[in-house]
Structures are given as structure tokens and as C-alpha cells.
Amino acid sequence: MCGIVGIYSNKDIAKELYYSLYSIQHRGQESCGIAISNGDNINYKKDMGLVGDVFKESELANLKGSIGIGHVRYSTAGGSHLANCQPLVGRCRKRELALAHNGNLVNANYLRDMLEEDGYMFQANSDTEVILYILARYYKGDIVESIKITMDYIKGAYSLVIMGEDELVAVRDPHGFRPLVLGKKGDEYIFASENCAIDILGGEVIRDVEPGEIIVAKDGKLKSYFYSENYKPVKRSCIFEHIYFARNDATIDNVNAYDFRVKCGEVLAKDEDIKADIVVPVPDSGWAGAVGYSNESKLPLSEGLVKNRYVGRTFIKPTQEEREIGVKIKLNPLSNVVKGKSIVLVDDSVVRGTTSKLIVKSLRDAGASEIHLRITSPPVQYSCYYGIDTPHRSNLIASGNDVEYIREYIGCDSLKFLDIDLMVEATENKATFCKACFDGDYPVKKLDREELLSC
Amino acid sequence: MCGIVGIYSNKDIAKELYYSLYSIQHRGQESCGIAISNGDNINYKKDMGLVGDVFKESELANLKGSIGIGHVRYSTAGGSHLANCQPLVGRCRKRELALAHNGNLVNANYLRDMLEEDGYMFQANSDTEVILYILARYYKGDIVESIKITMDYIKGAYSLVIMGEDELVAVRDPHGFRPLVLGKKGDEYIFASENCAIDILGGEVIRDVEPGEIIVAKDGKLKSYFYSENYKPVKRSCIFEHIYFARNDATIDNVNAYDFRVKCGEVLAKDEDIKADIVVPVPDSGWAGAVGYSNESKLPLSEGLVKNRYVGRTFIKPTQEEREIGVKIKLNPLSNVVKGKSIVLVDDSVVRGTTSKLIVKSLRDAGASEIHLRITSPPVQYSCYYGIDTPHRSNLIASGNDVEYIREYIGCDSLKFLDIDLMVEATENKATFCKACFDGDYPVKKLDREELLSC
Amino acid sequence: MCGIVGIYSNKDIAKELYYSLYSIQHRGQESCGIAISNGDNINYKKDMGLVGDVFKESELANLKGSIGIGHVRYSTAGGSHLANCQPLVGRCRKRELALAHNGNLVNANYLRDMLEEDGYMFQANSDTEVILYILARYYKGDIVESIKITMDYIKGAYSLVIMGEDELVAVRDPHGFRPLVLGKKGDEYIFASENCAIDILGGEVIRDVEPGEIIVAKDGKLKSYFYSENYKPVKRSCIFEHIYFARNDATIDNVNAYDFRVKCGEVLAKDEDIKADIVVPVPDSGWAGAVGYSNESKLPLSEGLVKNRYVGRTFIKPTQEEREIGVKIKLNPLSNVVKGKSIVLVDDSVVRGTTSKLIVKSLRDAGASEIHLRITSPPVQYSCYYGIDTPHRSNLIASGNDVEYIREYIGCDSLKFLDIDLMVEATENKATFCKACFDGDYPVKKLDREELLSC
Amino acid sequence: MCGIVGIYSNKDIAKELYYSLYSIQHRGQESCGIAISNGDNINYKKDMGLVGDVFKESELANLKGSIGIGHVRYSTAGGSHLANCQPLVGRCRKRELALAHNGNLVNANYLRDMLEEDGYMFQANSDTEVILYILARYYKGDIVESIKITMDYIKGAYSLVIMGEDELVAVRDPHGFRPLVLGKKGDEYIFASENCAIDILGGEVIRDVEPGEIIVAKDGKLKSYFYSENYKPVKRSCIFEHIYFARNDATIDNVNAYDFRVKCGEVLAKDEDIKADIVVPVPDSGWAGAVGYSNESKLPLSEGLVKNRYVGRTFIKPTQEEREIGVKIKLNPLSNVVKGKSIVLVDDSVVRGTTSKLIVKSLRDAGASEIHLRITSPPVQYSCYYGIDTPHRSNLIASGNDVEYIREYIGCDSLKFLDIDLMVEATENKATFCKACFDGDYPVKKLDREELLSC
């Protein structure tokens, strides 16, 4: 769960990178960074914190240059430490390289060991440094060649923007797990995790970067390469991006997040036989599904939970005995909306189940007579190895437990998940997906458990 | 536009004040503060910034005491300066007093001059210091007496929480412009601008403080007084709180904000003869009205604008030529929702008209074929003297201009406002209101323009 | 222990105030502030911390105006709190006033009670606010008149700079306890606690402000007034400024600190019959006295203790068991200088005796064979009520104890203080002094103990 | 110009490292850091700024472990950037290593190119990363072996502390350019750039680490190795450490800085035939020499320049026209000491000559009748390649110019430097020295100019 941006232009672009990163802040709030080439050198600034807090106007003004990349990070692999902030910037064979990465490798530990055996010294503990080191090792003057060799080594999910002094390269792994979109604004090329980072600059989206594709922006032109000539891309676009992670305005691999989410709500509402008064979304993630559910069921949509707009910022953690405050500060039930009502509560997914449990309790305390929880995706039963920060299987409420068990745990009157096939149908088959978190069908063989645990 | 909280308890309440203020952060983001009495002394901490940023856990732990007040501030009168942060804390006649204030006096300048003539020295430039000084001047041992005298002097809108070493007092002005709610949690009494600050603590709402009422919490008991025995309260609850300012979960003077907002949308949808495809809310303020409009019109509700959850934080201001970025970073149109559609765009109010104009343009750029703007309140034609930060009349688009003029300025295909009488009807007459911003009928005579400008 | 500066010019002077305050930073490290009048308004910035940390270049650039005052504060009366930072700025009778104060009143509590009785509200708890309120109360358009009345009320030590929108006033109390110097640079007038604040700007010192004098800079001219026409100033210049507090380059009331300190060392060396090898100063305060002692005794001066230049900055307090680290981080003995030597250790004063004790121990540990401590002032036996932060009498090692007792406590082989009469002789009678801390002869009757303790 | 510390203990040592670094803060004020091994992992904290500002008590408490190293940095090679802060910490062959370095390599660029050719990626641009990478490359399980190989590669000046999870290693280059002292406190071993870092902890100095020596602390014992069995150490202790850089209490390679500095002043005073009234030191660097000069010449020592204790902290840079303020804020002449006097001004060295020029001017403005500048070292004619931050030769006033030229530039009445042979004599031949900055005799062949400039 990270966001990346790359801009190739012929004018200073620090501020554009800033706005782009700001627009994809939802993809990572832990740290952020910008690296910019002025043609001769790459300068950068990165730090823990939000885009709006890390960058001051004067600093952006000092980051001169027309090629640049940016990153927002939510820690997955690699701890929460300044050394893991991206972009990573280094020098090899007398040239400078910068790299920003979204995704997760499944063989990072193996590769790290291999490089350590060869005498390399790692200074961070992220997958990204592994990629950078392999890239440097095989770089002999042709960046595309070294990227292809690197792609032979690294397995898993990666969308990358790589920058040299005079070129910008975008790379998407052969399965296309993580999104990467290409846009254009006049003579300027923009790569970004989500199209909103292009929209914000007034640019237009051209297309997705293809699985296994390497696009180089250099000398004012774009050139496309593929990982291997014989390579047949098998797109495995992460379905969880569409369900939860991307913004509603994201169109990734031809699927629009909002349309898909509404559709899932509609599908879920079919064949319902419960009698309810209102449809209540869990804000903000459940809104689109609730709109769909309301459309189809003709039940009125009502805001039964008010979200505090300031949550997500710094907040002193409640003690155990103040535990309910933690949920209430985020979501306060609207008692006069829910009192005495039978409600259909719509959310996009259930992971641990703990938040759902507290929400259901708070709605009951506010007087709801019946609570029917409807989830616009299937039960999450498997961990993700490709960059979504799902917890270990043992913490997934749906792992090894049936729906009735989950219902009882959460405490709602009824519970339904969206069927996996109906979910895929709702995408209108515009792409092929990785649904491993639901069905355990991992496109890239996961490594043994021991190794993964130590990642 | 400020928020206040007061808690009278028999245990340490710094952290409760923190959570309460956090929940009403939407009422003021400029500065915040907490003052707490340990029985002998009042200690405080206040600073520019958000609740989550200003207070650290260790500092709260140091603010010992069981009586306390808190404040979040959005500057209205008085500039943006540390000296204007509240609560104000002072010492008079060997006792300490702290004061937090929501509202705006109409005769603050006159009173300030009067006190200056008498040799008083003002150190801030807020209305609140004026109230504190009068309170101190007439305090002779009985806080209720001095409050009554103070209420003789001060004219306008004020909800106050006042704290002495051993007592907490809540005061609402004789018209009850600004909200003030009384709650209870066990032996603990809580006063707050909105009920969410009581809900968050797990307390229950008892009732609104009445116009002209003075409630004293002391020696474990509550006692109620009125400004004047012969005083007949004429409630003039600010309608704009219900339209825009309060959270959806607020119930002020018996009117629930969410219900009212939905109702306004429903009323507006009646007698419509336009043909449209979808109803699109301006997030977040237009959601409730759009839900109502959709209910009544049977047109489907669709999210056509995505709001960036991180806006409101620090943000480097776009230059003039990047002007559209300022709107897009906040609201990005969902082009595949709006493309080729005739949309009903719903918002709660139009003040300057500039934001509406930019939203309409951005929806058109995204391909909307027709845009029918519907506003769930009447045109704002008059400035507010009672604490809502409306601009000077000359900047109100509806001041002196008819609806057609506004429509042309905003650039939408049609524009309708909610009729003022229908709006009042939508409140179900649960209270009487100040609607001066719409009809110019000011409950408290405003002072002459010169004086007000210099406020 | 504070430092003040005032500048009256016809060009922007924020940066000059900054440099001046920087040069008198030794007079107070707790907080600092600058207030500047642009002719119409007074703007200010003040905060906890050092001059170099509080002020940024951009902020100084925003403080436009040609009249200004500044303050550095070391808390004496009034706790360590933002509200006590100076200058204090307020508005009375439609004009703004700013005030910075060095010194301590002996009747502040009495005056505060008096004003509270009259309905005034105090927002800080410093003497300075008392002065400001009395000034405001009696201000009727003529600043000099109100200052004279204020001087009738306030008793004790005060050097003040007071600023209105168009004038700057310097005031020194009738005894002239605290220093205040007048300087000039072209058309510009400068008042400052020490001449280094004038030197730094390239200005020249004109003279000391006289006891009881009020100097007004207005309309480009200086005008001098006196507290009372019949008033005969009896200068009681604080001798401790000359002994310790002022910088070596200060000339206050005609006495140069460095000359005086050297002289005291010389006087002390006369009639000595000890046999010693070297003279070692306690840095930095003992250097001048040690130079004098070495001159007179012909014993070579040697640096036996090295001072860490970074002490005084933030420093994590050693625990009890690391207690000696606290001294060593400040002063490390030069073992090869002191080993086997009989040394004369020179310091300027002994207050609690604890530091001397630890220094003597550390020199012994480093191998000194004999340590003869020589103090270039008499024993401090009485607390100061006029602004020097001496501890309560019970903590003064010399209060009620004879020299032999002190010697034993400190652990040196011999101990001598400078005789009080010889000390005065060393000033060459250039001024008359307050020596109350040595002889208990308080020029202004101190108030009763109870009241003072609660100050 | 950096300072390093290493501690091997059996209890938590974060706070000891903190105090040690605090005591050698004079060796580097740009950044600082601490890395500590808890036996399994190395954790660290480093940042731009001073020791007292970077480390908070709570953070130190979190850095658990009994083996640790620390660093204070004054940038020489490698720009001023967070990436260049030390210690560097990395992982190679499944173990972690941390490294702190004082000194400068002469072949860093060559080595960096070599490693880049082999596919290594540099993330900082300091010499230290080069050392770390070579160390990692040749590390095969025996740290001493890999250090020896590394020492084959790296040429120039380096004192190192290297830490693995369970061992601490101290290394000094074969010429011993930079100091490194071994101390002991109970069972604890301490390595540090200067003995004050040992003194502060209450430890005792054992001896200097020898040129070419590798000392390993492991399993509670010390073991000493040498770079090469046949290696004959030729000590080339940096004379400039003794002249200027080390604290007065430093004893490096048997030479005590204070004794040496005093001696240099004495030597310089011999055969003088000028008639002067007083000896004035340039504080603080000229004090010891001035004491020696005064001893020998029998001229009285006088403080003619007062140093502001707060300079060195944050300070807004004066503009060109305020240029003299920059000197005056640092050093203010004591006019009544120098007025009408013929003074011998003593400083330790002249590099660019600009500061001396401004000091001389400011003493003349203060009334000095004659100024005879005496420098207790020879003219600095050559740049240092071993870690002292002397400017390029073209900026050295003594490079290519004779003494008369320098005298005229500085504007003093006479000027004398200490003869190079007399300087060496003053060390009493306790060591052999690198004096390359004075005589151009570089112990390690410098590389060609081009390469060095690009360092």
C-alpha cells in the first residue's frame, strides 16, 4: 500500500509532484518523498509524515529540475524508519538513479541473502533497496537492459518509477498486480498509481502501463519495451484495489472503482428477503455499495453514522477502558436516524471483524432494532503477499470460520458477503484479477512460511 | 464559529476534554485550548493548531483537576494570534477565572472603549476579553450576580462556559443564537456546543441550555438561574447551524441536523420539472440534501465528485495559474459517472459563489451534459453579526443580485434555492430561529457600519 | 535578571533589535520577545527559548516599523510560562502600549490585590503586568504624567522601556538598581541594559539613564524628565551586576566590569602568605579575578579547568548517581596542569556552595595537592528583592555560617572572601551601590516575609 | 573534523554515549548519531543538529544495549545531508555492522569508482560509506581479517569505531593522523577521539590506539592486532589537533594540548623587542598562547575582547552592510582595556586572514594605539587532505604571500608567526607529526588535483 508518481517534463516540476502526491495521500500516510533531476544531479527530500507537513514551499522551490519521482508510503515490508522512506537515491557507475516502488516482492529475503553473500551492504530493510541494488549491479549503460535482468530476479508485485539524470522509466510487474497509469499534459508525461494524480494537474489519462511493460521517457519521447519478447502478459490486477484501496474516481485496468462498488451493492441486494427500513453505509468505505444496495432494493439510503473528518490525524490512543471512544471518535451513530429501525448496514469488506463488532454495538446502543450487515466483497480468508497490508491468516476472522461464526462474533442479526463469482461478474470482465485474498489462488508461488514470516 | 466544552466531575478530566474537543474540531481549526482547575489553581495549555497536534499525552497527564473547560477556535472577531486563543484565564479579587466563548458581540467595540476609558488594558483583541473584564469588574464574590450584570452589558451571541476554582457555569445568551447542550455521565456534568462531544464520552444528553439561562455546577449539584426574572426567552436559534455548520448528528433546540437537511432536499425536489439522470451531492455538505432530493425525485443518487480526505491540512497554496488545482485537490469529478449525464447538483448553500462556479466548470470539463444546481437553503443576502464567518455583504453573490444573475455567474443550466418559508416548515417548527442572513431581520439591532467594520 | 532594549529610529529596526538582544542573551535565556510599532500599530513576536531559536529571518522581515523594544527573560517573579514572556503589549484609551521590564518590585502583591479589588483582571503573574495596568489606569493622554503616577505606586527595582505608537520611553527607578544605558547611532537612539547592545550596532554610548529619570524619544528628539522635581536621586547601583551578572565589557554607572573584577582579584592577593604554584580561574566567571590575582601575586595563571562551550544548551539531566557528570560536562579538570600542584582557585562569588564543592573534589581527584579558594566578593548572606535570582536565605551557605564552616563544607584547604569595604574601594567610588546581598542594608524596605514568599 | 566514541560494556550505555558525545561536541556541530547493539540487533538514531537537541531522554531509554558507537560530524567530504550522518548502519552476510569515522581518505573517489564498476550502489556521498562497503565486501566471518583487507584499500586518515552485534572494534590508520584514545571504567572499555569523553564518564585513560592498530573488544576482553605484522608504525599525529582543534584538556599521543599551547606562546615571546602594554588573547583559541606569552614577556594579560557565549547557535546572517556585526556579535572589544594601549594580540593560527583583519579593525576603532599580532603556529600554506577543513590553497592568505603582505592585509602594526622547528621543539618530541599544512610534506601521497577537487 504505497503510491508512486513520475513526471517527465521540460520545466520545473517539484510543485506538480507535490500536488500529485497530495492527491494519492490515501495510499500511504507514514512517509513521503520527492526526488528530482536537474539534468546533472538528483536532489531529494523525504521524511516521515504527510505530504502537506513534510514539504514547505521554499524547499520545493529549491528542488529544481524537470524530471522527478515521488512516493507516499504505508509500511508493509520494512519497518517504520526514516531509512525506509522512498524514493531511494543512489549512485552507480558514475550515474545517479532514484527509485520509487509500490508492491511487495515474495523473494526479497532470498535476494537479499544472495546479495549479502556477494558482499553487498544493505542500509535499509525494504524490498525496494533489493531492487535498487540488483538494478545497479546489472546496469552497464543501458537502463532497459538492466531493468529486464532485474525483472528476471524479482518475483511478486511491483510498480516502479525509476529515474536517471535524463530519463524516467515506468515498470509494471508481469502480472500487473499494482496499478500504474500513464497520462499526458502538453509535452509532459505523467505516471501515477491512480489517475487522480494526473487529473489534478489537468492532464489526461492515456492508458494503463501493461503487465511486464517498461516505458522509457527520454529525449522528449516515450518508448515502450516488454520484459520479454515471448512474454504473454497475464493480467492479475489486484481486486482489492477496486474493492477498497483506490479512490472512487480511480479507473484501473478499465474498471472504475465507483461503478464497480455500486454494482457490487446492487448485486448483493438482489434476492434479499429481509425486511428493513433503511440502508446505512459505513462511511466512507461503504458509501458506494450502499448507494447500489439502495438503488436495487428501493430501501431509502440514510446516514446513520457520522464520520469525524479529523480522524486519521494525530490522536492520543484511548486506554483499554476508554476503548469505545476509539470507535466513537471516528463514527458516531445518528440516534434519531437509527432508533427503532431495522437497518441494512453496508461495508466494503471485513478483515479482523473488530471494527464491525464495535460499530454494530454502537448502533444497537443508539436504538437500532435490527442490524443486517452486508459486505460488498467475499470473506477475506488469505493473507496478501503482494503489498496489501492484510494481517496474518490467524487474525482474519473469515479464515477457518463460517459466516454464522462471524455473524455471532460481530453481533449482527444477519450477515451476507458477496459471492466471489458475482463480484467478478460485477467487473464486467474488463480485466483479469488476483483474488488470492479470497480464494487462495496466488498467481506467484508464495515462498515457504518461515521465510515469509521473517520478511 | 467556535466550539466550547465544560466538564464538572470528581476525577481527572483532561483526557475527556481532549476527546470532546476532538469531536467538535469541525467548529474551529485555528487554535484550541484546555483550562483545568485542581481545586486551588487553574492551569492551562493553548496554542495555534488542531487538537490532535497541540496536546501531547504527557501534557494532558500534567493538567490535573476535575473541573475544566475547552475551546476550539475559528477566528471571527479578533485576528489570528496566540493572544486570542481561548480559554482566557485570569485572576481577579484573589480568585481565578477561566472563560471560553462561542459567538460574537455586536457592541464589543463600544464596551472596549468604555473599559479603556476607565483605565483597563486589553491584551488581546477578541470579544471574549471584553466579557472577561466585565465579569471581573462586577465580580464581588457571587459569580451568578456578576454574570447577570455582565449580561446587561453584552449584546449579541454568546454561549459561554466559565470556570472558577470550584465551580463551572454555562451561560447562553437571551436569544440562544449559539447552541449549548447539557449532558450527564454518572455524577459528571458536561456542557458542549454539540451533543457529539457528550456522546463521545458515553454520556447522555439532558437538554439544551435555555436562552438567558445560567447553569451552575458546584458542590456536586446543578442549579439553574435566569438572566432576569421577568425575562421571557425568545429563542432565535441560528438556522445556519442546522443548514451547514453543525455535524449531521447534532440535535440543537430539538432540530436534528441530518433530518432537517434531508427534509430540505425533499422539499426542494417537489414540483421540479427538469429531466435529469442523476443526483450528485457536493461532498460533504451536500450529501444529506442530495439523499432527500433523490428520495423525493426517485432520481438515483451518484457520487460525481470525490473528496480528498486530506484536504484541510497544511497545503501549499496554488499560484493564480494553478488556480483550478485548488478545487481539484479538494473535489475531483468522477468522469465516468457524469459523462453525458444531465445532473442535479445539490449543495447546502451558496455564499460567494466562487466554489460553485469552479465545481460546475470541472463537472462540465468531465463531460456532464446539463448541470442543475439545487441549494437546500435560501440565498444568503446579509452578513451575520452573531458569529458565523460570512463575508461582508458586497461579497455575497446573492446580495443585490437575482437568481438568474447568480446562475449565469456560476454557469449552471438551472439554479433553484429553497424558499425561506418552506425551509422553516422543514424544521417542523420545533424552534424559532434567527434567519437574518437570509431575510435581514436581525434579532439584536446591529450597530452602525463603521463600528462593525472596525470590529 | 533580564535584559531590555529599545530603539527609536526612522527605518525598520527589527533586525537591529535582534542583534541587540542576541548580545545580551546572557541576561536571560528562558524567553525573549520583540514588539515594534509601524506608527499605527504595535506588532510583536515572543516565545520561550533563545533569541537565535525564536526569531526566523522571515518573521523579522514582517515586523515592520522604526520604533521597537525587546526583552530577554530569566524568570524571577512570575513562573516560567508563555503568558509571562515580554514585552507585554496592550491597548488602553484607544492607543497601544508595549512594555519591557528588568527588575523586581517589592510591593507587586500589594498592588495586584489593590487592582483586583478595583475589578482588574490579571492574565499573567509577573510584576510587569502590574506596572502595565497602573500605567494604563492613569494614562490620560500624557505618557510622562502616567509614568510619574505609576512611579508613585511601584516600589523596588525597575528599568523599563515603554513604547507607544509614536514614542519610546526609558525609565529607571529612583535608586537605579538595574542598569540602563543610552546610546546613539546617527539619528537613532538606543536604550539597553548593557552597552554591548549598543556597541554591536556600531552605536556610541552617551550616558547612563539616571535614577528616577524618564527619557522620551519622540518627534526625532529626546526629552528628559525626572520622577519628581524635588527628587534627589540616590544611586544604589546593584554591585552584583559588576561582580557577576554583566558582561566583562559592560560599563554601568561609570564602573567597568572587567576593570573592577581584575582589581578585586588584585586586592585579594595582597597580604596573602600562602605558598602556591599556580592561579586557576573557575571559567568563565573567575577569569578576570584570576588575572588580577596573578598580576599582584606574580603566581602564574594556568587553565586548570576546561569549560565545555556547549553547556547551557539542552542537556538531559544526569540521575543522582551520575551527579558528578553534571559538573564534569561543564568543567573538566586539566590533570597535567593541576597534578601535584598547590593551586589558588579563583571565583567571583559563592552562593549555595554546591558547585564549588564539586569543583574542589574534581580538582583533588585530578591530583591537586592543595586548593586555596579565593572569592573576589564578600559572602552572600541575604536574598535579593530587586531582581537577582538569589535563593532564599536558608539556602545561602554564608547565611549564619562562618568562613571556616564554609571552607569545611566546600573541602578546600583555605578560603578567603574579599572584604566588603575593599570591594567598594575597588570601584574607585565611581558610584554608590546596593550591597544588600552582602550586608542586608536594603535601600527599599522589604515587605513582610509572608508576602514576599508568595511573590 | 569529527568526533567518535565507542563503548563496550555489560549494561545499557545509551546515556553514557550521550554524555561522551556531548563532551566532544566541539569536534562537530552539524549532525550526530548513536548506534547501539542489544546483542541481536543494532538500533540507531541520528539527525542534523547538536547532541543536546537531537536526543531526547525517552529516545535514549529506548536504545537498549551494552555495545554502542557515536559520532559528531562537521562536514568535510560529503555534503551537508541527512544521508551523510553517522554512524552508518548496514547488514551484510546476515550480520549487522555499524561504523563511525573521523578523518578523510585520499583515494575515496578511486575506490568509489572501483566499487561502482563492480555494481555497488552508493546512497550517501561520504568516505565512510566507501569504507563500509569494502568492509562488507571482504567480510567472511572474521571482522579483523576484513578490516585488514579494507586497510589495504583505503589510504589517508581514519580513526574508526566499528560495531557488530557482539563486538566493538577500534581502528587507527597506519600514520595515526587522527586521535583515538582507549579508556577503561570498571569492566567497561571506552574508545574516543579525545580523553574528555572518557573523563566525563569517570573512566581512566589507558593509552592511545597505535597507528595501524586494530583493537577488538569481545567476550569481555580486549585483543590487539596490527594492520600488518611487518608494519612499522610511523606516527604522523596531526599537529593541528594540538594547535587548535582538540580541547585544552586533550592529551593526544603524549602531547597535552594546553601545555603545548602555553609553551608555544612562551617560545614566541622570546627575543621580542617590541614595547607593548598588554597581552590580549583572541578568545577562546588564543588564551593558552597568550598565557604563555605573558608568562615569558612579563607583560600583563588582559581581556581585550569579550566573547558572546551564545554564538555558534542559530544566528540570522548579517547582510553585507551589516558585515561588522558578524564579528562584533562574536567578539566585542573592551574599549577601556585597549584604549591608548599598545597591545600584543595572540591567536593560535591564521587561515584566511579575514577574521583577524576584522578583529584588528575593531580593536583600532576601540582605541588601541598599536596592535602586534602574534600567532602561535607557522603560516598555513597548504590544504589538508586528512580531515581538517582548511580551504583550498588559493584561499589561504599565507599561500604564496610573505609575512609583510599578510601584515598589511590584516592591518596590524607587526606580525610574527611561530617558527616551524620551534613549534616542534615545543612538543618536546613526544611524538612525530604531520605538519603538511605548514610545510607541504604530505605523509600519504596526495592524488591528482582533478580528483581531489571532485571529492
Automatic annotation (TrEMBL), chains A, B, C, D:
Transmembrane segments: none annotated. SUPFAM superfamilies: N-terminal nucleophile aminohydrolases (Ntn hydrolases) (SSF56235), PRTase-like (SSF53271). InterPro entries: GATase_2_dom, Ntn_hydrolases_N, PRTase-like, PRTase_dom, PurF, PurF_N. It catalyses: 5-phospho-beta-D-ribosylamine + L-glutamate + diphosphate = 5-phospho-alpha-D-ribose 1-diphosphate + L-glutamine + H2O. The keyword Iron-sulfur applies. GO terms for molecular function: 4 iron, 4 sulfur cluster binding; amidophosphoribosyltransferase activity; magnesium ion binding. Mg(2+) binds at residues 285, 347-348. The active site is at 2 (nucleophile). Pathway: Purine metabolism; IMP biosynthesis via de novo pathway; N(1)-(5-phospho-D-ribosyl)glycinamide from 5-phospho-alpha-D-ribose 1-diphosphate: step 1/2. Binds 1 [4Fe-4S] cluster per subunit. Binds 1 Mg(2+) ion per subunit. Residues 2-220 form the Glutamine amidotransferase type-2 domain. [4Fe-4S] cluster binds at residues 238, 384, 434, 437. CDD domains: GPATase_N (cd00715), PRTases_typeI (cd06223). One of its GO terms (biological process) is purine nucleobase biosynthetic process. The keyword Metal-binding applies. Its cofactor is [4Fe-4S] cluster; Mg(2+). Its EC number is 2.4.2.14. It is an enzyme of class 2 (transferase). Keywords: 4Fe-4S, Glutamine amidotransferase, Glycosyltransferase, Iron, Iron-sulfur, Magnesium, Metal-binding, Purine biosynthesis, Transferase. Catalyzes the formation of phosphoribosylamine from phosphoribosylpyrophosphate (PRPP) and glutamine. PANTHER family: AMIDOPHOSPHORIBOSYLTRANSFERASE. In the C-terminal section; belongs to the purine/pyrimidine phosphoribosyltransferase family. This is Amidophosphoribosyltransferase. The gene is purF.
